[in-house]
Specification:
globular; six-stranded mixed β-sheet; alpha+beta; 491 residues; single chain
Amino acid sequence: MTFIAAIDQGTTSSRCIVFDDAGCIIAVDQREHQQIFPRPGWVEHDPAEIWLNVQSCVNNALQRAGITRSDLAAIGITNQRETTVLWDRRTGEPVHNAIVWQDTRTDALIGSLGRDGGQDRFRERSGLPLATYFSGPKIRWLLDAHPALRRRAEASELLFGTMDTWLIWNLTGHHVTDVTNASRTMLMNLSTVDWDDELLAAIGVPRQMLPEIRPSSCVYGEAGGPLHGVPVAGALGDQQAALFGQTCFAPGDAKCTYGTGAFLLLNTGLNPTLSQAGLITTVGYQLEGQPPVYALEGSIAVAGSLVQWLRDNLGLISRASDMDELARSVPDSGGAVIVPAFSGLFAPHWRSDARGIIAGLTAFVTKAHLARAALDATAWQVREVADAMAADSGLPLSELKVDGGMTASDVLLQTQADVLDVPVVRPQVTETTCLGAAYAAGLAVGFWPDLDALRANWRAEATWEPAMAATDREAGYQRWRKAVARTLDWI
């Protein structure tokens, strides 16, 4: 029997999961890496530490599964997106810590780029608004802050990659990325699915340091070292991997992943839908020999991290798992509303000047009401994004597939069904980012024959049906929007 291994290189940790042909988990190993904060708003990772951790996770996962590399049909990769690494082409050594997607040091550069055309200057070509989130401006910042790096980049001595590229390079020696990660750089033309010379010139990034763009499901090369001969055959940014793992293969299919943030993606088919409502147009996935499939994405900065804040900063709970029990002890938030704009608001607002608030406080409100308000905050943010998606695409949600750590909360998922007025469905296998990477790799080597075989693997574990009166839903939404308005223009 053969298996597929998936590497999930995430924001706080790296892990490896081994799957069988039914998409069931056989073994898991995980390791955290250091979060480096050189200055307020700056977030970095050590790429060398991450590579060592990934090797350890793969070896340990294979040991736990009781298999060797010869039992692997392929390896797939999923990764934190937008995080930016530069390394020496000859030695393979990083020349700077990786700049993480959360990092805001490019804020002034983003403002400068927006003076000619505003926040939507590059949206038609790249699908993206100008924001500190994306990779291209991070490259530019590194080259501007360290002139020696720019000289080396222009001399073809340096390579750029997001974390998928960094891992594929170390595994195979090939400098490639997949279309989903490339679509998050602000340097790729959505229509041509290639690096765009006008974007490169405007943002100031030399083409020669960029990887080759390949489909999400194809063989990038064979691994060396302890994994010698195993094909590295799939790569997807983490949220696109979850879309793929949830088998959202038809236009109108949608999933939301609830982790540190929350990320709602809607399959829009073979044509990119440019957003007029504050969303991101991105590549959902591409199979080898087929055109890319596009998606609309709403990125919410704070979801699970609000629960962590209530635990670590306020001491409201001792464990994240206590949140559901506390929130369930009251019927609603008692009128309290939390808007967790800790470092601004992402979709659909894109307001870096916003800051978080707790509104509607009265003497009646207890910590249980605040716990309920925290879960409500995630549900209402997803509602805002879902409304924007329906406006942009003309494809209103009929159901929402969900995954991620916060989906352990039954209170959250019932609230989500109530505020969206559609069923919310949790699958049996909730590790959908790794599963999506495994599926992409398995398709490329024939481990699974086609998308129908993947659909047959998907099974619902539980479904939440909406149970809120329409008048209550709209009153709650208006109260939420009123609170959001009070977060703006704070900085």
